[in-house]
Design goal:
The chain is mostly helical. Helices cover 45% and strands 10% of the residues. The radius of gyration is 19 Å and the shape is globular.
């Protein structure tokens, strides 16, 4: 995968970054969205494909993007298709910071050090080129305004933006209500983006978080109709934070 094109996680993060405060909107759900955006990007690259409500690795060859390849390798190690809701609901510690640091290295944002309450070191991120964020936003605006089915990448971005709750950040107030509704409707234009977006919303609503059942004792059959225990979720390993103290990242 060439680096001439921004990935969906990068675009989703740039959409969420507030140009005034340097913080990210919807930080908790955004972490889920970034994990989902990785899945869509891997699907667009032909590395994975949907299998019902699961994700299957079809081509394990690396993409050339280290963060995406980490996710691809973790999926490959599972050896069997993984439920999208279980994957997205797994631990995502450090994923947002990983992408913020990547955008900083690429020169798309720069870090601004500060303090919270005059004591706790914080880091905020300002876009270095607002034209990039405007171009990403313009694609969504065009799809909403014209009603023309967008390309799969834009459709998936719209689905993820809706799923993590960015609609109220991008189109606030009563005047933005119709735009938020049309943003939600764009979810139907990309099957993979729709699958992932629904999985993100299911995780937030606790749909995929079912308790593990105790295994039946040896020599006994499970009760008829009993469901198997859900799969354990796996995520991207936590990346270390930089600085003399654990700096608080944008939130």
């Amino acid at each position: 995968m060439g680096r001439s094109r921004r990935t969906l996680p990068e675009e989703l993060l740039l959409l969420a970054l507030d140009p005034t405060t340097g913080t990210t909107a919807q930080p908790q759900s955004l972490d889920l969205g970034l994990a989902g955006a990785q899945l869509v990007e891997l699907a667009l690259a032909g590395r994975i494909a949907p299998d019902g409500d699961r994700i299957a690795v079809v081509v394990p060859r690396p993409t050339g993007d280290p963060t995406l390849d980490c996710a691809l390798e973790l999926l490959r190690r599972r050896g069997a298709p993984v439920r999208a809701v279980n994957w997205i609901g797994g631990p995502r510690l450090g994923l947002r910071q990983t992408y913020l640091s990547h955008l900083e290295r690429c020169g798309m944002v720069h870090a601004v050090a500060g303090q919270m309450c005059g004591v706790l070191p914080t880091t905020r991120y300002q876009a270095t080129d607002n034209d990039i964020s405007r171009e990403i936003r313009a694609r969504l605006d065009s799809a909403i305004r014209t009603g023309v089915p967008p390309d799969p990448r834009t459709a998936a971005l719209a689905a993820l933006a809706h799923a993590v709750g960015l609609g109220k950040h991008l189109y606030p107030g009563n005047e933005g209500r119709s735009s938020r509704s049309r943003l939600r409707d764009l979810i139907r234009h990309d099957p993979m983006g729709g699958l992932v977006a629904h999985a993100v919303m299911d995780v937030q609503n606790g749909v995929g978080a079912q308790p593990r059942r105790n295994p039946a004792p040896a020599g006994r059959q499970a009760a008829p109709g009993a469901r198997p225990a859900p799969e354990p979720a796996h995520g991207v390993p936590m990346q270390p934070r930089r600085g003399p103290m654990a700096r608080a990242v944008a939130h």
